[in-house]
Structure formats: structure tokens, C-alpha cells
Amino acid sequence: MVDDLEGISVFLAVAEALNFRRAGERLGVTRSAVSQALQRLEDRLGVALVQRTTRSVSLTEAGEVFLAAVRPSVRQVRDVMQTVRDMQARPSGLLKVTVSSIAESFLSGTLLAGFMQACPEIKLDITITDDEFDIVEAGFDAGVRLGEVIEQDMIAISVSEEQRQCAVASPAYLERRGQPRHPRDLQNHACIGWRPRPDTAPYRWEFTENDGDFDVAVDPAVTTNDMGMMIRMACAGAGITFGMVETFGPYIKRGELVPLLEDFCPPFPGFYLYYPRRQRQPLKLRALVDYVSRSGRR
């Protein structure tokens, strides 16, 4: 019994190349083999799919209809076949991930070190940046950001607990300048602000009151793009700074910094590993997603 699918890959090669010789080179067979396989397919269908002349090759009307119908199906079959092959393969290759500088739990090293031990044939390339951009266009496999800034067409899985922001200052600063009771009081304090680049305005500090969100455009006495610098300046008594409680945690625990305005800083969803929707994800990316998902359930 002749397989009805015989010759379809040959037809696709011819339809894409519009040349029997180039189609044969793509398939690794002779021009004659291409012609014979296509002829057998046309015989089974009872219709000509390709118009051949001594100078050119073109699709007939039936060929155009057949191409539109089989091309997506063949692509899907090939994807499934590759997925099955991947089940027997080991994840490997270079995995490029961009991560927000304030994703403390993800960047702590514990999760990524465990992933490297589980998948030793994968090499990690991690770019830490707070710029927002299209990770696909920039050539990254995945990113880690706060959920609120992730595009809706991405797949995202949680990689942290709920997060909360707050203002902090050193005991020495508070003894000298007093403690703000409301975010509007920040206008009367020395503030240490953050901005991603020199050509951007300082980040506006965000708060919530009576279930409504608002922000405060502080006029920083010090502005930087480095959270470490912000913390060092705050610990030295230079002013009040603002960021993730998770980032300030060790300094608060040691008494070097004091949390402020906590009643105006409710929790919100944290960080997510996100990546583009594809019919077939690269095995190296699936390995990271699976590992992160398992780690989150422990």
C-alpha cells in the first residue's frame, strides 16, 4: 500500500525553491529523484501540482491550494518529531537570560547554582539590567522582571515571593532630621534616588493610600543607577532611599537601616521568569523552566 504522505516533503521543497535541482540539493537527492517522487504524488492526487517548462517551474492553482493546506501541517509534524527527539537528548548550549538588578532571590546564586548542577551541559549568560526591551529582538531566551512590566504575549512563571517596597534611612539620619509620617513629608528630606541612565528622570516613589496608588516625585540630593551605592549612602546617613524590602532586609536586621512609611507600601506580585510563546521551546529553556517550577514547589 502506497503511503499517502509520500512525496509531500519533495513537493514542499520544489514549491519553495521553484527549481528541481535546488530542491534536490536541499533534500540530498538527485534532480531525477525529485521529479519521480513529485510525479508519483501527482498521479495519486490525479492533478498536476507543478507547471514545468524548459525555463521555469511554477505552481498550478491546485498546487497553490495544496501548498497552503500542507505547509502548516508539515511544520507541526516536524515540531512534534523534534520534541520527541528532545525527550532522549540532554539539554545543552548557551542560555541567555536578562535579569532585573533587584531580583534578589533569583540572583542570590542558590537557584542558578542548583540549575547548573542539574544541567551541566548548559552554559548561562546572564545580563543584569533594568532597561525594558524586547528580549526576542535582543537575542535573549528569557528574562526575569516584575510581573507588571512583562508583555502580555509572554509566558511567565513566578520566581519569588510577594514583594514590597519601602523607604529606609539610618538611625543617625532620623535622629538628625526626624522621621516622615506621610509620603508628602519626603519633600522636606534629603533623598537618595535611582535612575537607570543619565538621560532619564529619577524614579518616582510609589505608594498606596485608601486603596489608591500615587507617586511622589522626590528631588534627590543624590541620584545613581546603582542600588549598592544607594544603600551605602543611606547607611552613612546621607538621606532616605527607596526600594525593595528584600534588598534592604540584611541592613534592617542589623539595625543599619530603619524601614519608613510601611503603612503606605502594601505587598504586590513579585518577579517572574518570562519567555516567548512558541510551539516548540528550545530544550535548554524548557530545562530552566522545569527546574524553576520544581524549585518553587519545594
Annotate the secondary structure layout.
Elements lengths: L7 H10 L2 H8 L3 H15 L4 E3 L4 E3 L1 H27 L5 E7 L4 H4 L2 H9 L3 E7 L13 E5 L7 E5 L6 E5 L1 H7 L13 E4 L10 E5 L2 E5 L5 E3 L2 H9 L4 E5 H9 L4 E3 L10 E6 L6 H14 L2
Parallel strand pairs: 3-4, 3-5, 8-11, 8-12
Antiparallel strand pairs: 1-2, 5-14, 6-14, 7-12, 7-13, 9-10
Helix pairs in contact: 1-2, 1-3, 1-4, 2-3
> What is the percent of helical residues?
25-40%
CATH architecture of the largest domain: 3-Layer(aba) Sandwich
What are the low-pLDDT stretches, counting only 5+ consecutive residues below 50? none
Indicate the mean pLDDT: 88
Tally of separate helices? 10
Shape: elongated
List keywords for this structure.
elongated; alpha/beta; Arc Repressor Mutant, subunit A; D-Maltodextrin-Binding Protein, domain 2; 3 domains; 298 residues
Account of the 3D structure:
- By secondary structure, the protein is α/β, with parallel strands linked by helices.
- The protein has three domains: 8-87, Orthogonal Bundle (Arc Repressor Mutant, subunit A), CATH 1.10.10; 93-162 and 269-296, D-Maltodextrin-Binding Protein, domain 2 (3-Layer(aba) Sandwich); 165-264, 3-Layer(aba) Sandwich (D-Maltodextrin-Binding Protein, domain 2).
- Helices cover 38% and strands 22% of the residues.
- The chain contains ten helices and 14 strands.
- The strands form four sheets. The chain has a five-stranded mixed beta sheet with strand order 4-3-5-14-6, covered by helices on one side.
- A hairpin with a 2-residue loop joins β9 (205-209) and β10 (212-216).
- α1 crosses α2 (20-27), α1 (8-17) packs across α3 and α1 crosses α4 (61-87).
- It is elongated, with a radius of gyration of 29 Å.
- The model has no long low-confidence stretch (mean pLDDT 88).
- Keywords: DNA-binding, Transcription, Transcription regulation.
- It comes from Rhizobium esperanzae.
- Residues 3-60 form the HTH lysR-type domain.
